[in-house]
Design brief:
Blueprint: H1 8-21, H2 24-33, E1 38-39, H3 40-47, H4 51-63, E2 67-72, E3 75-80, H5 83-99, H6 105-118
Antiparallel strand pairs: 1-3, 2-3
Length: 119
């Protein structure tokens, strides 16, 4: 049985997701959000950017339905829209780690555990 192509609408939405991911600040923000909900000021500090700049990136990610918000008082907290995005970000970073020399960071713990068991 041949693999069927996704509907055009889903292809177009996937392209939009990759467009939104084509920015280093957004990847950093999404990576941080993969560990849980965070406030804008916390994200800005962690990525080393001005809060206004991070807010603009988050607004684009929200419009693309990649992040969700929760307001508490005057603070806005962001989280990933779903676990699929968490996997996309992790897989992209892990794929990038394989492009470099040596053992990728996400494999080092596995290698260390294997060496420990063999010793």
């Amino acid at each position: 049985m041949a693999l069927r192509l996704p509907d055009d609408e889903h292809i177009d939405l996937a392209v939009e997701v990759f467009r939104m991911l084509a920015d280093p600040t957004r990847i950093r923000v999404l990576w941080l959000l993969s560990d849980g909900e965070r406030a804008v000021n916390e994200l800005a500090e962690a990525v080393g950017k001005q809060q206004a700049s991070v807010s603009q990136h988050l607004a684009k990610l929200r419009l693309a339905r990649l992040v969700l918000t929760r307001k508490e008082g005057t603070q806005v907290f962001y989280r990933l829209a779903d676990d699929h995005l968490r996997h996309v970000i992790a897989d992209a970073i892990h794929h990038a780690e394989h492009a470099g020399p040596g053992i990728p960071a996400h494999h080092r713990a596995q290698v260390a555990n294997t060496i420990e068991k063999e010793a």
